[in-house]
């Protein structure tokens, strides 16, 4: 009956997985190196404005953020602050990182009054490099 | 007396190694944020008390005033935000020592302010682009780092943020 035997390849049919951990470790190391674990939780809600002439900030480690929410609350690092406190905070940041860039993430509907107040505080605190965070306008 | 040697395999099983490293990989994948920060960079003037007053001829200052309703006044002429680009560009062409002084009302929305700054920056970008074509024959994007610096030195951005005061 069994005249036709199915031909079977004599090679093994398993993909060698011995190097799989190495590949994954390589990916892992890439992500470990590129991760900046210093994340803040943002307690204010905001929508960034958009602009066409925007530039990228290359060095993320120089950046220090100031958030201003829709309701006018100001957050630096992990706490909500009052505007008169910004001066001393800015001065401290300046001491820690001499060429600090203050990135202002301000809600697009905010009044300019609060923005100028923050800027005055930053000037007094001698943190003069600022960046108005904005999205790329399409 | 001969002891029978058991031929045990003495290898650590590495089959689960991949799973462990996958787990770590996933953790870092989830926690990584690869969003680049973009925005409009600016340097604030130093505090008022220790900066000496610099006298600038009034013809070298272009005052851009923006009120709460988003209306723009450039050298006593009423315009709107999208037109700033052209006006500033023409004025810069006529006078290359011009300083753009941007002044806003306390009630102006932040988005109008950013749009204004963006317009002024656009005017500069277009001028630089033209200078680049005239000098090197290619647009700004194709310049080398040194050439870019030359263009930047040729047409410096002079944007001044006026001292805030309550405008009526």
Any chance you could write out the topology, listing elements then pairs?
The complex is a heterodimer of chains A (138) and B (168).
Chain A: H1 20-34, E1 50-51, E2 55-56, E3 63-68, E4 74-76, E5 79-81, H2 86-96, E6 101-106, H3 112-124, E7 129-133, E8 135-136
Parallel strand pairs in A: 1-8, 3-6, 6-7
Antiparallel strand pairs in A: 3-4, 4-5
Helix pairs in contact in A: 2-3
Chain B: H1 17-31, E1 38-43, E2 61-66, E3 72-74, E4 77-79, H2 84-94, E5 99-104, H3 110-136, H4 145-154, E6 159-161
Parallel strand pairs in B: 2-5, 5-6
Antiparallel strand pairs in B: 2-3, 3-4
Helix pairs in contact in B: 2-3, 3-4
Structural description of this entry:
The complex is a heterodimer of chains A (138) and B (168). Chain A has three helices and eight strands; from the N terminus they run H-E-E-E-E-E-H-E-H-E-E. Chain A has a five-stranded mixed sheet with strand order 5-4-3-6-7, with no helix packed on it. In chain A, strands 1-8 form a two-stranded parallel sheet. The longest helix of chain A is centred in the N-terminal third of the chain and has 15 residues. Chain A is elongated and about 95 Å long. The mean pLDDT of chain A is 83. With 168 residues, chain B is of the alpha/beta class. Chain B has four helices and six strands; from the N terminus they run αββββαβααβ. In chain B, strand 3 and strand 4 form a beta hairpin. Chain B is elongated, with a radius of gyration of 29 Å. Chain B starts with 16 loop residues before the first helix and ends in a 7-residue tail after the last strand. The model of chain B has no long low-confidence stretch (mean pLDDT 80). The chains are: A alpha/beta (138), B alpha/beta (168). Chains A and B meet through helix 1, strand 2, strand 6, helix 3 and strand 7 of A and helix 1, strand 1 and helix 3 of B. Strand 7 of chain A pairs antiparallel with strand 1 of chain B, so a sheet runs across the interface.
